[in-house]
Amino acid sequence: MNETRYYKVAGHVFSVTVDGSVAGSQGGFFAKCMDNYEPFVILDTKCLGSIQFTLEVKSHAAFDYTEEIRQEDEGQTIICGHTVSGESVFEFLLRDISTGTLICSSGYREARLLMGCAAQDLRLQKFALNNSLMVLYALATAGLGTALFHSAVVSYKDRGYMFLGKSGTGKSTHARLWLKHIEGSELMNDDNPIVRFFDDGPDGAPRAVVYGSPWSGKTPCYRNVQAPVGGIVLLSQAPYNKIVRLKGVQAYAALVTSISGKRWDKSVADGLHATENALAKNVPVWHLECLPDEGAARLCSNNVIPGNDNSVIPGNDNNVIPGNDPESRWRLKAAMTRDGALHDDGRARHDEGQDAMTKDEHAH
C-alpha cells in the first residue's frame, strides 16, 4: 500500500509517495527516514495550493543510463546522466555503494527514486532520499527566484546572516563563534539554507529572504524559520582578520560557487543567473579573511549588521581588526610562506570565483 505526505519548504510545496515494496513503508517509513522533514509537513491537505514537484519512492533494481558528469566529495558521489528517452538521471553513491537512482521528468516536476540495496537499509535509504529531494528542490525551483545554498546562517535581530565558503573553510565554526560571542544570535541552518528573491516586498522594494530547511549537514538544525537577508559573507582562512565589501562582478562571483544547480541545463542556469544577479545587486556581500576566533566574529558582525555604531573601524580604511596592521600582516604571511607551514589561499579562492563569473558571462 502506498503512502503520501506533503511538505512546504520556503513556501514551495512538494509530495513524497512511498511504495509498499520499500522496507519500512508499512511500519513508519516517514518517522524513521524523514524525521528531519517533520517541521515542514503539511497537516491540512485541503489547502495545499500549487505542488511544485512530486517524488515516488520505489524498490527497484539498477538500470542502464548514459553518464554525463560526476561529483565526488568525502566518500559521497553523485553521477549525473540521462536515459535513452532523455530523462535526467542522478545516481547517489555512499562509499562506492549505490543507494538509489533518481529519474526526473522534463522540468523536474515529477520524479521517481529507485532504491536497490538501499531499500533494505535505513541509513542508505535516508542518504538516497535526502540527496534526491535536495536535487529535485534545487532544480524544480531554480526558475522561481529560489536558490539552495551551501552555507551556514544565523539570525540576529530578525535578520539572517549567511556565511559561504568551500568545504573546510570554517562556515560552521564562524557561525558557532557568532552564537558564542554575539549575544542574541541563533542558528537557522548549518549547511543548506534556501534563499528566495522577491521583486516586490511589503513596501514595494525588492527583498531577499533566507529560510531554514530539512537539510543541515552534520548539525541537526531543521528549523522552519525565515528572516530577511541582512548580509552574505564569503569566508576564507587567513592568519589575520580583515573584511571588505564586494560589489558588482565580485559580489556575483562570491555567490555562484555556493549555489546548487545543474548549470549545463539552460533553463536551470538561466533561473539561477537571474537570482544570483538580483542578490548581488540588492544584498550586501562581503569577503572575510579570518582566523577561527572571537575577533573574526566581532569584526564581521560590526560591519555587516545595519546600524551598528562600529560598522567601520575609525581611521582604518582596510577594516583590519585593531592590532593586525597591514605591515605586520605582510611580514607574518611572508614568514609563514617561506616556512611552508601556511599559505594564504584566500585570494586564490576569490580569483576562482571571478573565473566562474567570467565563464558564466560567456555562457549567457
Lay out the secondary structure:
Blueprint: E1 3-9, E2 12-18, H1 29-33, E3 51-59, E4 66-73, E5 76-82, E6 88-94, E7 97-104, E8 110-115, H2 122-140, E9 146-148, E10 151-156, E11 159-164, H3 171-181, E12 186-189, E13 194-198, E14 207-211, E15 226-237, E16 242-246, H4 249-256, H5 266-282, E17 285-290, H6 294-304, H7 326-339, H8 346-363
Parallel strand pairs: 2-3, 3-8, 11-15, 15-17
Antiparallel strand pairs: 1-2, 4-5, 5-6, 6-7, 7-8, 9-13, 10-11, 10-12, 13-14, 14-15, 16-17
Helix pairs in contact: 3-6, 4-5, 4-8
Description:
The chain contains 8 helices and 17 strands. With 364 residues, the chain is α+β, with helices and mostly antiparallel strands. The model is unreliable at 309-318 and 320-364 (pLDDT under 50). The strands form 2 sheets. Strands 9, 10, 11, 12, 13, 14, 15, 16 and 17 form a 9-stranded mixed beta sheet that branches. Helix 4 packs across helix 8. It has helices at residues 29-33, 122-140, 171-181, 249-256, 266-282, 294-304, 326-339, 346-363; strands at residues 3-9, 12-18, 51-59, 66-73, 76-82, 88-94, 97-104, 110-115, 146-148, 151-156, 159-164, 186-189, 194-198, 207-211, 226-237, 242-246, 285-290. A hairpin with a 2-residue loop joins strand 10 and strand 11.
